[in-house]
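RETRY 2/3 - previous attempt timed out on the joint model. Re-submitting the same 520-residue input unchanged.
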Amino acid sequence: MLKPLAPALDLIGVTFAYGTRQALKEVSLRIEPGETVILLGPNGAGKTTLFSIVCGLFSPTAGFVGVAGLDLGRQRTEALAALGIVFQQQTLDLDLSVRQNLSYYCRLRGIPKAEAARRITTELERLKMAERIDERVRDLNGGHRRRVEIARAMLDRPRILLLDEPTVGLDIPTRRELIAYLHTRGVEDGTAVLWATHLIDEVAEADRVVVLHKGRIAASGTPQRLCEETGAAGLDQAFAKLTAQGPPPKEQPA
Amino acid sequence: MSAAHYLGAFAGIARRELLRFVKQRERFLSALVRPLVWLVVFAAGFRAALGLSITAPYQTYIQYQVYIVPGLIGMIQLFNGMQSSLSMVYDQEMGSMRVLLTAPLPRWYLLLSKLLAGVAVSMLQVYVFVVVAILFGIDIPPRGLLWMLPALIPTGLMLGALGMLLASAIRQLENFAGVMNFVIFPLFFLSTALYPVWKMREANTLLARICDWNPFSHAVELIRFALYGQFNLLAFAVVAGTGLIFFLGAVWSFDPARRFRAGRTA
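RETRY 2/3 succeeded.
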């Protein structure tokens, strides 16, 4: 059973190593329903590893992963049902249509056919992609493919949406649009969002920023608090101080 | 997690495999042309060189073309199994394997569904091939087409599971050519697909023994006997046993606790 008041995500002391290389060290993080959290970290900080653990693709060497009040280690399938995931890599079938891709996902998630058709229309409409439903994914541009993936992740009404660098390779207006969209969803449906990025200008509207550096949580708080704590004038500086390797790039070269 | 969810997920996975298959016309053509080339070109040449005596399950002397049909059916399933594993390696690189493995169903079930979907694709190819072979005038008992159906499931599963096990070991597409050389060719040539074991024994007893032990031989024999309405228990046992081992190995290697441990990255 999903527990409505349980945290959307609850990580306690999560540790992971690739062989002898320590990728995550005792990461603890709690995300409440409806909260939007940005996981900010330079490349190689452990963001993708953390995501792979939360979606059950890796098992942590130590620690606890709770999703919507369920223990991922013990109640794997139930916990996975509460997750919506947008992977860093493109994961759509290029030769299938948008509809075929989304229907496949609904089947995997056990959403009945009629309900699936309804939800597919609704989610695509919300992202202004409804008229593209019968197009081949190969014919869509990068931004539209990302929208389809976000629509897909929302189909099963997840308690928490995980996005791993979802705006990589997109132009600035598209990125802004997607960010604004996800904020709206968080407010409207109470879907918690965990958004991993290395781009500081995606941070602005987050409820909370968690800075991951070398597999550890270096800081956590509102953007304002991070600035105060580090005595920095802006987030750029705060981030630079926290990771001590210069400010992260503001924009992703497309 | 209801029964409807399980069945629906399988239907979804099978539909995806079939859609992907029909959209790749080259794959369909090569799957059809490859065995036909063997049947029409090689068999004609080999027939002259090879004399076949009466071998079970055949009741009488048969044409060489008739002998190699079950072997070529096995070849279709072998290639299909490897093709599925190739697409799994591709899926891993592309990430769509992650979408499958993060579905809220047990991992073994998802992998089994993927295997069965691959078997369905291979059966489609097999039946198109057999129909074309009959049109070419090859003597195949029409009722054998029906009897063969239940045999193609365990053989397809076994070869698909082998492909899946290989896919978990191969991380990059570039390494796939090696699989062709070191898996497909030995499996196919050191089997009863092209010549009966006794014929092989005349030439080399060691090779004949390898033939006897090759699970692909047993897959071919299971299909061969089924075509003539007979059930080959030994072949079935070997196919089912090795298939189960391959499958368990594949599930084991896709276990997140084991995966990505040895310094491998996502």
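Chain A has a mean pLDDT of 88. Closing ticket.
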